Structure formats: structure tokens, C-alpha cells
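Weekly structure sync, notes
Attendees: PL (lead), two postdocs, one rotation student
Agenda item 3: pending single-chain targets
PL asked that the sequence for the first pending target be pasted directly into the notes so everyone works from the same version. It is reproduced below exactly as submitted, 183 residues in total.
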Amino acid sequence: MQLHNSTSRYGLVSIALHWGIALVVFGLFALGLWMVGLDYYSPWRKDAPDLHKSIGLTLFALMLLRLLWRCVSPPPPSPANHGPVTRLGARFGHGLLYLGLFAVMISGYLISTADGVGIPVFGLFEVPALISSIPDQADVAGVIHFYVAWALVIFAGIHALAALKHHFIDRDATLARMLGRKA
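Predicted structure, written out during the meeting:
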């Protein structure tokens, strides 16, 4: 399989980024749901949020890499059987997924740095607190983080259902291309 995207399928880099990011997003969502229920005496009370933040910042770097990769290796065009409404819907849907991902990550950063302290990443280095002077920063960013995370996971589920609809009902190559198969 080729590394770059072609006119008929996605390349290995795009496929790895797509599925890897999807796994990380759902893993972070599950970790977030679990960690907010931890009580004061839980041994994970400090470690779970630190892990969540470190993985979230790694995801941010992967998303920047994904955007760069889209410029270097543009995705293949939509299958020929997709009409203009389907093409517009796909473009709009992917844009919403990207926007949601960045909104969740930026709001998470703003929650974590509201007190002016940087974020350690797996104990290797620290991402500095560049913005910490927004009134009620942690609270406002927390509400945004919560609701956008839920919206993102729900919309990602709809995205997956659309891919399955294309595969099983429309019988087109939409899903096959993201699995590395030719259209």
C-alpha cells in the first residue's frame, strides 16, 4: 500500500491518522467520563486527569500533522455516484468534525491552564500556560469542553453510520477507500 493518497484510495498515512485519531477521541471521551466520577480518595484522582491532558495534547499534535498531511497529500475525490448534495454534506461534515476536535482540545487547554500553570506531557516536557486571564476561564471552558465533547462523539457516530450506509446500502467505495482498498 502506498503512503500517499491516490485518486482512488487513501494512503497508509491518512488511514493510520484517521483510525488512530478516532480511537484516541473515543478513548479520551471514556477516560473523561470515568475520571469525573472519581472521589477524593481514589488513587487515580490526580493520575487520570494528567493522563487525559497528556493524551489530549498528543492528539492536538496529531491533528496538526493531519492538517499538514491533507495539504501534502490531498484526499481522493468523492466517488462518481455521489451527487452535489452528498459531496457538500461530506465536506460540511468533515469540517464540523475538525472544528469540534479543535474546539474540544482548545477548551481543554484553557481549563488546564486557567490558574497560570503549564501542562506536563507524560512527565517529558511542559506546555506553557499562554492564556490564563479570561474571566471565569476554567468554568466557561469546562462547559464548552463538556458539550462539544458530547456533540463530537455523537457526530462521529453519525459519521460512522453514514460510512456504513454508503458501504451496505449504496454499495459504493466510500468505506473501502478508508480501509485502503481501491474504489
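Discussion points:
- The mean pLDDT is 96.
- The two ends are 14 Å apart (CA to CA).
Action: rotation student to compare against the earlier draft before next sync.
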